[in-house]
Amino acid sequence: MSSNSPKTPGPGTRTAVWKSITISLIDDIAQGRYSSGDKLPSEAQLAARFGVNRHTVRRALADMAEQGLVHARRGSGVFVAATPTDYPIGKRVRFHQNISRGGQIPAKRILALETRAADKTEAAALQLEAGEMVHVYDGLSLADDQPIALFQSVFPAHLLPNIRTELEDLQSVTAALKACGIADYTRAETRITAKLATATQALHLRISEGAPLLRTTGVNIDPEGRPIEFGRTWFAGDRVTLTLNGEES
Amino acid sequence: MSSNSPKTPGPGTRTAVWKSITISLIDDIAQGRYSSGDKLPSEAQLAARFGVNRHTVRRALADMAEQGLVHARRGSGVFVAATPTDYPIGKRVRFHQNISRGGQIPAKRILALETRAADKTEAAALQLEAGEMVHVYDGLSLADDQPIALFQSVFPAHLLPNIRTELEDLQSVTAALKACGIADYTRAETRITAKLATATQALHLRISEGAPLLRTTGVNIDPEGRPIEFGRTWFAGDRVTLTLNGEES
DNA sequence: CGTTATGATTTGTCTAGTTGTATAGAACAT
DNA sequence: ATGTTCTATACAACTAGACAAATCATAACG
Known about the structure:
2 copies of one chain form a homodimer.
Chain A: H1 17-30, H2 43-50, H3 54-66, E1 70-73, E2 77-80, E3 85-89, H4 95-101, E4 106-117, H5 120-126, E5 133-143, E6 146-156, H6 163-170, H7 173-179, E7 186-196, H8 199-205, E8 212-221, E9 227-236, E10 240-245
Parallel strand pairs in A: 3-10
Antiparallel strand pairs in A: 1-2, 4-5, 5-6, 6-9, 7-8, 8-9
Chain B binds a DNA duplex (30 and 30 nucleotides) through helix 3.
């Protein structure tokens, strides 16, 4: 609306149309009209609602995306972005505990579940012979329905022959290991690196390609010291902060 | 048929999603995850794994079929026809750095040494009043003549009045603190995030702008629990892996 | 044992909707 | 004049859903 005073002491130009659309949409989000994870109306619909061209709406949405408020997915829509979360790492890494401690609702989605021969990296980490079979669990971790991280868990098949069915039912590594007789496990070592998101990683995590990722790799061992899981996780870097407490919990 | 469209992605467009899926699948075949004659997972399963619509997977498979790597049989599946011959192996030397103790790395070059009022973040971390004076040490650490990390250490001036001269002489935070009467200190908490390199950071670290960085922030406390250092470090994600082994408490 | 019917799974094709990119031009302010 | 803002149009890339056609697994039946 240009009912604003035409002459402001500032830059001289009236507030741009796209800027007022940005403000209006941010206000809608703040009012709860669209909440985290929701899909906004399509650009065409928004253009009709504000009585402007689609490109003007796009200018506003681009501004909001730069602020990290929304994220667009081609062919699908524009979605309200998630809020950042802290994620503690240490000797005991338990996804459900970590997320629910912060008051968020954890969930996991299975992306792939297969059994195959271990590659060189996996064999070395799990202390296997080359070519031994492993169960591989690719998945996506969510907090409050927002994607937090991609992960891949590799289990030695000869130690945990039927963990695939357990994982399928329980969707939890801790619970599945328990069902297979591993009551407790600890993380031997964690390695952390920074990577850039590939196109498909970006799609899963609802970020843009080239955004920074936090990649952690680690091996979990049972009380007797045998490696039972080789895990790799890719966290959305601008949505997650890993916290490392000095004291062990 | 849209036969062969040798269209190169324009300067503004990123890599197409289907193309990265192609690369990923070829990679899987090259690594022996799927070998010649095997049946690939169904299009629906692949779509779920890559977080993408089935049509996008089909575009990738069509590309691979055109290259003669796979062939599809309606009602049956997609089968691997041949294995790619040339496969690039990424080789890179990595510098391993343990973060569980103190978070200090051997410092090599001083970039700046100054005394000024603490900003809001620093004051909060060091439990200072707003505007209290701090000593700030900006530096660059190297290994084998390769820049590894940028770091900034902030010390409360009233607790460590003459640490600047010590730092200048010793170039080591641990040694300088010892010279100031702090025999031992521990890290209270470490926070880790992934960021993209700014132009100046890239220049110092000899990487390209937008390369992935590993940012750690932490506070060190003396035996009495008083915060004595607030440190921030930016590691070059391409060259560094942070390790956290379970032995440390 | 062999054949057939049935249903589920998988690839092939089609239509429609949504965001991303490129180009061109009109209105307007400095 | 010149640059910015907004409009207008067209196409590319990806999603979503539906349906057809080929194949496979299995049960039923002779």
